[in-house]
Structure formats: C-alpha cells, structure tokens
Amino acid sequence: MWWTVAIHMLASMLMVWLAVILYAKVGEPDDGIVVQVLPQPLRWLTALSAVALAGVLVLGTMVTGAGPHAGDKSIDNPVPRLDLDITMLVHLHAEALVGYLALLVGLAFAVYALHAPEAVKTRLKVVLALVAAQACIGLVQFWTDVPAVLVVLHVAGAGLCTAATAAVWAAGRIRTTAPVPEPVTV
Question: For residue 146, is it left (φ>0), alpha (ψ between -120 and 50) or beta?
C-alpha cells in the first residue's frame, strides 16, 4: 500500500530532524547557559518554515503514492496507488515548496539584517542551496517521466533538506559558556 511507504518516509524524516537536534545539543556544554541567538519572531519564523517543510514532505509522499514508484510493480498482484490526479498533486507539492522557500528567504533576509551569528547564516545558506537543488531534481523528474534514479536522489534530498532545516532551528538557541552578544530585537 502506498500509505505504508508514506508513513515510513515521514517517520524517517522526523527521526532525521531529531537526530540533528540531538547532535547539535550533545556538542554543547552541560554547565553552560541557554542563549537565544535569534529573537523570538525569527524563532517562530524558523518553526513555521519547519511546518511548511512538513507540508512539502506530506505532499511529496502523496505524489509518490499516486505515481509509478509507489511500491511493487508485480503484474499479478499490483500495488494499489493513491487514486488522485498526479499532476494536481505535483502542482500542490511544488506550490508548498515555493511557500517553504519563501519563508526561508524571508528568514535569510532578517538574519542578515540583524547581523546574526555566522553559524545561523551558514546553515541558512546550506538549506537554501539544498532546497534549490531539490527543486531542480523535482522539475527534471516531472519532465522526464520520473526515472527511478531521480527518485532516489529526491528522497536523499528530502532528508538533507530536513537535516538542514533542523540545523537552522538548533542554531537559533544554544547552550554556551562563552559570552554571546544579545540578539537584536525586532
């Protein structure tokens, strides 16, 4: 069933998110103080971008469920596909991606305007590059009738985008023993 693959993918992306947060927090000192590097409105914007990413991922699993790579291709026992128009799903997935990207671009402008730490800026550059690459892969998939090798790259890209977005979130509030300048408020 297509939905079992979708649940597996979404659970995997949640585990990627949590693993990145854990990795970031394990590297911080136990006896440090918690410093909110980004002002609260930008923390909310970062969280909203994560919610947008979740929407992109859910729609992506639906595209896969309606497409040719939803499971076993057995002629004798075909796997039921999601019975929705795949072109409509692809467009919804792409529109959700544009919303996610717009939130990230807005966050990047704000982070640069507020002179946030380089760690946050670097992570934002990485996530923006990954999302752009992921969009390119998705376009090529659509134009070339979804070759299986591009599905593999697109799934890997989803994991990387999830990890990079989690890294931006983790960089917004850190535990440190070194003095950190107060963030500019908005």
Answer: left
